[in-house]
């Protein structure tokens, strides 16, 4: 009966090299996070571009409002300015929502990868295969 309980024990207590394995996994996750952040930046680049263009247009409109142009011209510029600010806020909200979604998905995928690696390593250990980390 004593032999049947061994599979219920925590694999971390059975493997003295587990600390080193966990450190390697953390380093791999950090490297993956860096690569994903590069992908995230390239994905979000169009949003940044649109936001910058909108900010430039707002700055030009504000400068023209301060420079004069009559009451009618100022009212039109103010309406345009309000529209542009609304668009800018909308784009920024979309940008943040997309970023949060991607960060959440990235965390889920990293978690899955970590557990899949552990499962493969445990399976290899059960059948006696030595794996090379890297």
Describe the structure.
By secondary structure, this protein is mainly alpha-helical. Helices cover 84% and strands 0% of the residues. It contains three helices and no strands.
What is the topological layout?
Layout (H helix, E strand, L loop, with lengths): L10 H4 L3 H50 L2 H58 L7
Helix pairs in contact: 2-3
Keywords: Coiled coil
Order of helices and strands: HHH
**Shape label:** rod-shaped
- Mean pLDDT metric: 79
Strand content: under 5%
Terminal residue distance: 38 Å
Helix run count: 3
Low-confidence parts lasting 5 or more residues at pLDDT below 50? none
Keywords: Coiled coil
Region (Disordered): 1-28
Coiled coil: 81-126
Biased composition (Polar residues): 10-19
In short:
Residues 1-28 are annotated as: Disordered. The chain has 134 residues and is mainly alpha-helical.
């Amino acid at each position: 009966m004593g032999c049947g309980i061994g599979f219920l024990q925590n694999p971390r207590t059975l493997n003295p090299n587990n600390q080193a394995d966990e450190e390697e996994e953390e380093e791999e996750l950090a490297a993956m996070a860096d690569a994903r952040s590069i992908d995230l930046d390239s994905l979000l680049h169009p949003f940044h571009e649109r936001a910058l263009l909108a900010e430039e247009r707002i700055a030009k409109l504000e400068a023209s409002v301060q420079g004069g142009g009559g009451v009618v011209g100022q009212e039109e510029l103010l309406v345009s300015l309000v529209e542009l600010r609304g668009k800018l806020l909308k784009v920024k909200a979309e940008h943040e929502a997309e970023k949060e979604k991607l960060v959440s998905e990235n965390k889920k995928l990293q978690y899955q990868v970590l557990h899949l690696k552990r499962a493969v390593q445990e399976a290899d250990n059960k059948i006696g295969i030595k794996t090379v980390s890297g």
